[in-house]
Amino acid sequence: MLDLTYEAPQPKTIAGATGDWELVIGLEVHAQVATKAKLFSGASTQFGAEPNSNVAFVDAGMPGMLPVINEGCVAQAVRTGLGLKAEINLWSAFDRKNYFYPDLPQGYQISQLYHPIVGEGEVLVDMAPGIARRVRIERIHLEQDAGKSIHDMDPHMSFVDLNRTGVALMEIVSRPDIRGPEEAAAYVGKLRQIMRYLGTCDGNMQNGNLRADVNVSVCRPGDYERYQETQDFSHLGTRCEIKNMNSMRFIQMAIDYEARRQIALLEDGKEVVQETRLYDPDKNETRSMRSKEEAHDYRYFPDPDLLPLEIEQAWVDDIAASLPELPDEKKARFVTEFGLSEYDAGVLTAEVANAAYFEKVAEGRDGKLAANWVINELFGRLKKEDHSIEDSPVSPEQLGKIVGLITKGDISGKIAKDLFEIIYTEGGDPEAIVEERGMKQVTDTGAIEAAVDEVIAANPAQVEKAQQNPKLAGWFVGQVMKATGGKANPAAVNKLVQEKLGL
Amino acid sequence: MSIDTETARRVAKLARIKVEEDALPALASEFSAILGFIEQLNEVDVEGVEPMTSVTPQRLKRREDVVTDGSQQAAVLKNAPDAREGFFAVPKVVE
Prior knowledge:
Strand content of chain B: 5-15%
Low-confidence stretches of chain A: none
Number of domains of chain A: 3
Number of strands of chain A: 17
Mean pLDDT of chain A: 93
Oligomer: heterodimer
Largest interface: A-B, 52 and 38 residues
Mean pLDDT of chain B: 92
Largest sheet of chain A: 9 strands, mixed
Number of helices of chain B: 3
Number of helices of chain A: 16
C-alpha cells in the first residue's frame, strides 16, 4: 500500500486554574447498515414511509414470532470490518440487552455483547496534510435499532412509529485514542467516508443513519502517555458518556462543554461521576440522564432464538476481493500518479463520485491542471448553484477536452474559462465549439508579430516610458491580447513585446 | 448465593412485574433456591467442552436481503390499547 507519511496531531489542551488539562475521547458510532430489509425480518428499511407500515410481526414483538437473520446485513458488516482493516470473527453470537421503552416492543434489543462479528481494526484520521491520528477500533457488532417516539404531537401522549425498529445497525467502538473535539468530528467524518466508499452506510446524519455516543474524560499532561504505555485505564480520569448525537458540530460543542464541566468539578475538589449525559444544543450544555441509570442493568444473555452466526473464510475472501480502492490508498495514488498536493488529493477523494469524475478528466492529461479545473472551476461552480457532481452540467469528457485544449496550447487559460462557461450553460463539444467560434489561440508568430508591431507603432509615448521602466511592458501585452480578442498565446506575446521594445 | 428482598424487588422492577411487598421474601427465597441449583451445576468440570447451542447439528438459518414483509399498518396496530394517525399512542415518555 502507498502510505503517506504523517505525524500525530497535538492533543487539545484546556488551561484550568490549576494548570493544563488534556482530553481523552472514545466514540461508539451507530451506523445504519445499507440494506433493503431489516436485520431479522423482511420489512423494508426505507426512510420516510407511513408510520408503522415497514413493520413485520417480529419487529412489533408479537408472541411466537422468530427472528431470521438477513445475510445482506452480515455481508455489509464484514465488508465494513475489512474496510477498517479489522479482524473478522468467523464465529459470533447474538445476545439480548433487556430494557423497557415504548419504542422497543420486544423488551430487549438483539445485539452482540460477548462475541462481535468484527474485532480490532484501525482508522487513520486526517487532520491536515502530513498530520493524522491513528485511531484503534475495538470492535464492530451488529444490533437492532429501536423505533421512533414523537413527543410533540400531543400534550399527554407520546406517539410511537416502529418503522425503524429492527433495522440493522453496526456499532463501531473505538479505543480512547481521540484527543480533541475536532479529531472526534474528523473521526466520524472518516468513518462516514470509508462506509460511503464501501456502500455499507449512506452516512446520512440528518436522518439519524449515523449517530455517535461520545465518551469524554480529562487528565493531566503525561497521564495519557502513561495509559498508552500500559493500557491501564487508572491513569485516565472518570469518563462520562454523551448519548446519541447526529451532527458533527454538536459532537464538537458537546465535548468541549463536557470537558470544561469536568475540569471545573475537579478543580473545585469534587469528583466526576461516571454517568450518561444528554447534550442540549439549544442551551449548549450536557445534563445527566438519571432516569436511564436504572435501565443500565441490561441483564445480557445469549439470545435463545438464534444459533451462533458462523461464516466461512472463503465467503469473507470473496467480499475482500470485491472491496473498492479506499480513501487512503486513493489519496496516496493521486499524489504519486498525478503529482497532486496531499491537500488537493484529499479534496478530490472526499467522495468517491468526485474522485471518479477527476480520474476521467485527468486520464492521459496533465493531472495537476485537471485537478485545478475540477476543484476550482467545477466544484466552485457546482457549490454556488447547489448542484451535486452527479448532476453536473459539464461531463468529465467535456471538461477533459477543455483541459486537453489548454495543454495543447489551442486556447489560453482565460479563453478556457469562457469555454467552460459555454459548456456549462449551453453544452456541446468543446473542441468543435473552439473551432466554430474562432476561439483558438493564435500561436502563429507572424500574426502575433503583426499585432505587436501595430500596437507599438500606435503608442510611441508608451514605448518610451516602457523602455525607461521595463515593468510597463505588461501594458503592451494587454493591448495585443485585446487586439487579438484574447486568442494570442500570452507567452508568445510577452516574448515578442520584450524583443521589439529591446528590453 | 442468597438473594435478599431488596434484590428481588429490583429484579421485579426491571422486569416490570408487580410484586406486593409481602410476597418479596418468598420470591427472594425461590431465587436463592434456583441459584443454588445453578451453583451445583457449576461444580461440573466442563474444561474443554464446547457449549452446546443446538440439540441437532444445524446452521443459523438466513434470509436473503429482500423485502418480503410489512405494509400491514392496520394489523400491526390492531391490538394497541390506543393508536392515532398510524402511530401507537402511549402515556408521555420524555427525557
